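Structural prep section.
Before we set up the soaks we want a predicted structure of the protein with 2-acetamido-2-deoxy-beta-D-glucopyranose in place, mainly to decide which crystallisation condition to try first. Input record follows.
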Amino acid sequence: MSRRSIAPSAVLFLLFFLLCFQVLSQTDGSAALMEEKEKQALYSMIQGFVGTWWNGSQLYPDPCGWTPIQGVSCDLFANGMWYVTVVSIGPIFDNSLECAKDAEFSTHLFELGHLRSLSIFNCFSASDDNPVTIPAQNWSKLSSTLENLEFRLNRGLSGEIPAGLGGLVNLQTLVLTDNSLGEGIPWELGMLVHLKWLTLSGNQLSGQVPASIGANLAELLIMDLSSNHLIGTLPSSLGGLSSLLKLDLSNNLLNGSLPRELGNLKNLTLLDLRNNQLSGEFVRSLRGMASLQVMALSNNAFGGKIEDFDWKSFGNLTHLDLSNMSLVGEIPDSITQLKNLRFLALDNNQLSGFVPARLAAMPCLSTLYINGNNLSGSLDSLRLSTRGQGRDLPLGITQISATNLVVKVQ
Ligand SMILES: *[C@@H]1O[C@H](CO)[C@@H](O)[C@H](O)[C@H]1NC(C)=O
Ligand SMILES: *[C@@H]1O[C@H](CO)[C@@H](O)[C@H](O)[C@H]1NC(C)=O
Ligand SMILES: *[C@@H]1O[C@H](CO)[C@@H](O)[C@H](O)[C@H]1NC(C)=O
Ligand SMILES: *[C@@H]1O[C@H](CO)[C@@H](O)[C@H](O)[C@H]1NC(C)=O
Ligand SMILES: *[C@@H]1O[C@H](CO)[C@@H](O)[C@H](O)[C@H]1NC(C)=O
Ligand SMILES: *[C@@H]1O[C@H](CO)[C@@H](O)[C@H](O)[C@H]1NC(C)=O
Ligand SMILES: *[C@@H]1O[C@H](CO)[C@@H](O)[C@H](O)[C@H]1NC(C)=O
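Run finished without errors. Recording the tokens verbatim:
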């Protein structure tokens, strides 16, 4: 085994390696053939976000092959070419692309004609000198492919939601959350008939909830418009969102009464309307929602009698928040039949009468608020001290707030 016998094979190997390297680097990579136009569009698009110092062709000569860019994915199409299908910008992984202070949307974005998913996370930071808006034009160029569009936590992203997003007819996810978007919600979003997930929470959106959303988005599963400045009454068309599982409109300025059609949302598991100015009859509007697990209506001016609810039909409730709703009447025994209930807030209403003894026997209840009413009863009527040695709360109840109850400690 001398050197002589090794050398020829080593030379061969080196030759082979060089050949491969040359093929890969010279012909745009035999493993990941790309149109030059596509590649340049990708580089320029990323430069828009991360800055011109970033030289894509130098750092990532084969972006769909052996030099992948973190956050960028490609797919092979029938013509034998690779195209960019997923772009995620922002500090998601340690080595993710980070945005520059003067980050902006490059028009080259719209040249990536096979893009399925675009997400921009924590990229545009809040600063007065570089307000960024969502491009108003050219979204139609992505309409045949784009399914997922997410802009999250970009406090420097202001201006309005462009009506042109309504042309993205294949969109399934539209998440524009915790940015600084303002103005109204464009009715054109009601054209996104395949949308499953619509989240516009945590912006400064104003105006009314457009009726078009309820009228057309029959596949919608999640709708979250919470923490904006939305006003006015809810459109009755919302009752058309028959697939809906979660509806969160909390922390807005919505007023008027709930449309009766809301009761058509039979698959709804979460309804959060907290912190609005809703009023009027609501029992009938919620009647059909037998799947509800979370019903949170607190801090509204609904009024009405708590007994009017057919609580027995809400057997899957785990979380019931009815505090500060101007409710009158007595706590009905039927509430104590809600076997899965873990959280119950009835505080700051005008409830009267006795606290039902069976509250203490609810198997899952761990949090109970009943203060701020005109209730009578005593903690021992809740059998609060009958179960444990020296415990003054029943098994499971970890928090009780009943300042105007007559407390009797045994
Ligand atoms: C990137 O680097 C190459 C040479 O390595 C140069 O030719 C090209 O102009 C650079 N591109 C940009 C956008 O700076
Ligand atoms: C839309 O695309 C055209 C070219 O196709 C370009 O001139 C224009 O600047 C683009 N507008 C925006 C807002 O990106
Ligand atoms: C409601 O849920 C049931 C069971 O998951 C499902 O079969 C039904 O299709 C859903 N209804 C709608 C309108 O999506
Ligand atoms: C709801 O608020 C608007 C102002 O934002 C007001 O004009 C309207 O009368 C209110 N409607 C109800 C039913 O309170
Ligand atoms: C309540 O939950 C159970 C178990 O998850 C489910 O089988 C049942 O369909 C639910 N009831 C309603 C009315 O949604
Ligand atoms: C009670 O709800 C009203 C809206 O109906 C709100 O203005 C008020 O701040 C709430 N009170 C508390 C203590 O949260
Ligand atoms: C509280 O209820 C009692 C009857 O249980 C009633 O006599 C009293 O007037 C009520 N107080 C208020 C402030 O409503």
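Observations: The CA atoms of residues 60 and 364 lie 56 Å apart.
Flagged for discussion at group meeting.
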